[in-house]
Amino acid sequence: MAFTAQALVGSSFVAAVALEDYPIAGGQAARYALAALVMLAIAGFRMPRLTRPDVLPLLGLTLTGLAVFNALMIVGVEVSDPASMGVVVGCVPVVLAILGPLQRGMRPRPVVVAAGVVVAAGAGMVQWTGAAPVLLGVVLALGALACEAAFTLLAVPLLPRLGPLGITQWATVMVVPMLGAWALLVEGPGAQRLPDTSELLALLWLTAGVTAVAFLCWYGAVQRIGPERAGLFSGVLPVSAAALGALTGSVALNPVRVLGAVLVAVGVTLGMVLGSRRRGPAPTLTA
User: Fold this and answer.
1) 214 closest CA partner among 10, 17, 67, 75
2) What's the rounded Cα separation, in Å, for the pair 147 and 92?
3) Of 108, 138, 177, 237, which one has the fewest beta carbons inside 10 Å?
4) Does residue 281 belong to any structural domain of this protein?
5) How confident is the model at residue 281 (pLDDT cuts 50, 70, 90)?
6) Are 10 and 247 in contact (CB under 8 A)?
7) What range defines the domain where residue 80 resides?
């Protein structure tokens, strides 16, 4: 499930090519509005009822993981380059390998952290172009990294009650007014327009594959195997993007990218195999 989720998200970079001339914020708002309708239909046109403790984590993961993350990545790419942003954000497996257990009052498992480092290194090799990093771009990338981690970690306490479907439903609903306000402020009402055929197809794919299916798979994986091991599959995203880019002719494969993909596979495999072994009760942290 985690592999499927990240592979689908990786395909968004190919879809984004068709949306180069489409208003960014408006397109994101339309994407999530359509996704919210899809999720509502999947749930039989019912929304799970929220309790007071649910509201803040849901708002937090929606604001950080969807709205602010997109804004930081867009601005970061403008002041820096996609590769530099991707290399920093690609460290999310390490962050989740450390913070995931700590969130549950447990010690991080060294083998999973090490696997996360291998995955992050491989993901960086897949994306790195040799361009010199820009300080502001690095700062924005670190912010995007924090938002990406929050998107997963804030969902952990919600999963037992709301499940992957409920979280995805509420997240897609909540983010629409956030992105709508962003579109009006940044792009203005005159910037919005109906998409042409290729743009519409790209938006539909982002809605169905990259949002609805990917979110359900991702949160399902987090619920089943925990955020630290699910996070290892974040390295699949740049590999998927590079592979699809190579097929469409927008990305040139080279030995470094191939080696990076191999490292991602090795890191994920080691983390899943060795990280699943238990040597008795997991130690808990004490004050």
Assistant:
1) 10
2) 10
3) 177
4) no
5) very low
6) no
7) 2-275
Supply the angle between the helices 236-248 and 110-127 in degrees, to the nearest 10.
20
pLDDT digits (tens, 9 = 90+) for 99-117: 999 999 999 999 999 999 9
Mean pLDDT of the chain: 87
Residue 80 amino acid letter: S
Euclidean distance between CA atoms 37 and 205, whole angstroms = 14
- According to DSSP, residue 154 is labeled T
- Contact status, residue 247 vs residue 235, Cβ threshold 8 Å: no
> Of all residues in the chain, what percent are helix, strand and coil, respectively (each to 5)?
80, 0, 20
Distance, in Å, from the CA atom of 264 to the CA atom of 89, rounded to the nearest integer, reads 15
pTM passes above 0.85: yes
Can you tell me whether residue 41 is helix, strand or coil?
Answer: helix
User: Is residue 182 a part of any domain in this protein?
Assistant: yes
Mean pLDDT comparison of 12-26, 62-76, 271-285, highest-scoring range: 62-76
Structural domain total, the chain: 1
Kindly state whether residue 286 falls inside one of the protein's structural domains.
no
Rounded to a whole number of angstroms, the distance between the first and last alpha carbons of the chain is 36
Does residue 282 fall inside a structural domain?
no
What burial class does residue 106 get, using C-beta atoms within 10 Å of its C-beta: 0-12 exposed, 13-18 middle, 19+ buried?
Answer: middle
Per-residue pLDDT tens digits for 60-101 = 999 999 989 888 887 887 777 677 778 888 899 999 999 999
In sequence order, what are the residues at sequence separation of 6 or more whose Cβ sits closer than 8 angstroms to the Cβ of residue 64? 146, 147, 150, 151, 154
Tally of residues, the chain = 287
Question: Whole-angstrom Cα distance, residue 137 to residue 120?
Answer: 18
Residue 162 makes CB contacts below 8 A (sequence gap 6+) with 48, 54, 170
Ramachandran region of residue 280, left (φ > 0), alpha (ψ -120 to 50) or beta? left
3-state secondary structure (DSSP) of residue 256: helix
